[in-house]
Amino acid sequence: MMPGAGRAVEDLLAEVAQLKEHDLPVRGGQVTAYVYDTGRPEVNDAATRAYLEMLEVNCLDPTAFPSVVMMERQVVGAVADLLGGGHGIFTSGGTESIMLAVKAARDLAGRARPNLVLPVTAHPAFHKAAHYLGVEVVAVPVDLETYEVRARDVERAMDEDTILVVASAPSYPQGVIDPIEEIGAVVAGVPFHVDACVGGWLLPWLREAGAAIPPFDLSVPGVTSISCDLHKFGYAPKGASVVLFADPAMRRKAYFASAAWPGYTVINATVQSSRSAGPLGGAWATLQALGREGYLELGRATLAATALLREGIAAIPGLRVLGEPAASLVAFAGDGIDVFVLADEARARGWFLQPQLSYAGIPANLHITVTGVTLSGVEAMLKVIAESARAARERGPAVLPGGLVELVAGLDLEALDDATFADLAASVGVDLRPGSGQPEMAVVNAVLDALPVAVREAVLVRFLSVIYGT
Questions:
Q1: DSSP labels, 300-316
Q2: pLDDT digits (tens, 9 = 90+) for 246-279
Q3: CB 132 within 8 A of CB 169
Q4: 3-state SS, residue 286
Q5: CA distance linking residue 190 with residue 403, whole number of Å
Q6: How many CB atoms are closer than 10 A to CB 409?
Q7: CB–CB of 228/79 below 8 Å?
Q8: 45-287 maps to which CATH number?
Q9: pTM value > 0.90
Q10: In Å, how far are 106, 253, 442, 451 from 96, measured between CA atoms?
Q11: Domain ranges of the chain
Q12: Which of 38, 76, 147, 236 holds its CA 20 to 30 A away from the CA of 396?
């Protein structure tokens, strides 16, 4: 609600602090998804001050604000230097980078019924881009031992309407790198995008720190574009990503221009038109504040923490790490332990582990993103995981009311209003209504895990609608 008269700044900030009271902490490493922490407050301070300095600068017209051009050239140039060259665009995040890569490939090909071929482990941003841009998705299964897609399966899935092939470096769910060189050898001139949103600004430093990282960037024959998020392992504030194209002509296909109106000239490099240069300033400052030595030190710490975490989880009875993660993403499943219950137990102890539903033969599991700050708290994390695993084994799996899954699967969700859906959720112990507090998520995740994918998606939309309300 908007007040009748303006409020004092101190009053506003006090309310912001109150509103954030139940948020997960963004510093300290106890939240193992969504946030990336260097553990260096001076870097965060530099990024924050640069972000605020550029906050009101509008990226819409680079001729009006040449600082945008100069900063973007430096940031994109740094990414290109690390990832095999190319011609780039600074975007708001991995989803927008992926959207532009798909748009460029679609417009370049000019197919009537375009499709893109991707592994089942590829990020849903590709499905989102395909949905918005009218492109069919052809999903390819992965090896259920390595969780990598096989080049021969990608080749078989391609046809004359394929406008783009996708692989990950690494894939988010299990942190493994798809065989980029092998796929590049079979794409036969079709554009090939490497989703390195997670790994683009991490894998080169891990390689320099001694990890065996295979070639994955624009230097690999066949790779035509790559995405790299700087607000992940670049540790920049949210809203910072880069998409690189090997060919400047393909980058131009990502642009949008319109002269079909009598107003100002419209030419956009990104999906957004007006957008704050704050994220660009924050990313620029973060890269400058850390430098090569800083990122290499963070890479070494991340590598060490990941190794300790993998070994520690494997030693906990009833838990097993999935695949051989090459980066600092670790996923583990349970044998005789409900991982969704384990996640609730860990959250009750102050730690957030990210649940992942079963899909395409891959079991339900929990995901951990290891960042620069993790090493200092890895023993505490392993202690909590072990305690939570024991508690989850004692509690047993989440108990679902009889017939609940069948009931939800058979509902006509479009016929229910949000209030009715909220009442239904509350009746099974998942109260999403305002003031009800944070529900345990094991039951929610167990129901979702048991539903067909299309029904999962419909239920998730209703959850979001109820949470936000009017």
A1: HHHHHHHHHHHHHHHTS
A2: 999 999 999 999 999 999 999 999 999 999 999 9
A3: no
A4: helix
A5: 48
A6: 15
A7: yes
A8: 3.40.640.10
A9: yes
A10: 15, 14, 31, 29
A11: 45-287, 404-468
A12: 147
